[in-house]
Amino acid sequence: MKGTQTDRIKLLSEVEVLEPLSAEQLEWVAQRTLNRSFQKGESIYLPGDASELVYLLLTGRVRLYGMARQRELTFDIIRAGDVFGEVSLTERTQNEHAQALEASQVGLFELNTFWHLVRENAEFNVRVIRMLGERSRMARARMTDIALKESPARLAALILDLVQGEGVVTREGHYRISTHYTHENLAKMIGLNRVAVTKAFRGLQDSGYVQLRRRRIYVTDLAALKALATEN
User: Fold this and answer.
1) Is residue 139 situated within a structural domain?
2) Of 103, 134, 165, which residue constitutes the final position of a domain?
3) For an engineered disulfide with 163, which of 103, 125, 152, 167 has Cβ 3.0 to 4.6 Å away?
4) Of the candidates 38, 120, 145, which has an alpha carbon nearest to the alpha carbon of residue 84?
């Protein structure tokens, strides 16, 4: 990794799953982590790439996606401090792409080294198990939404996920989603086309559930949005 050893350790200390590690263990990790920089839109890995690495997102945002019925479907948006590619701990889907959504720094960590930490640190082991369980739960929920819910409910559920991941409470008590997501971006996350998302989003606006201000989504009625998200 580039930069001073102190800089490297500071970035690694902000990766949530590494929080249980001691200063000595973090330094050990820093010495074994290769830093890579990716520009917006650049692929980090493609289907079929070797899966003997775990990826630590140090700065930026990354999209994990695959192809379904000749259409992109976003599995997850990874934010700084998260780990991805970790399904290689079990089996990465052969259809998974990872793409930088903005300029990003990624730490590449060998899988064997990762397993060494799992064996050496019990709390780290627990964090990994929780992380894998939560990712699996979210993936199942997303697939269930796509299979069973109508467009407005799918979109409502997605917006709630985005609020949980990056929502900021405003002075009015509303929730602002920090990132600008186009209707095309949202469509790729829930298996719809852009026209369907535009129609569903307009319905949420007309109902007073959300607003669009300066290209950012604001949730103005969280309770109503939650109720809609549970509808089939």
Assistant:
1) no
2) 134
3) 167
4) 38
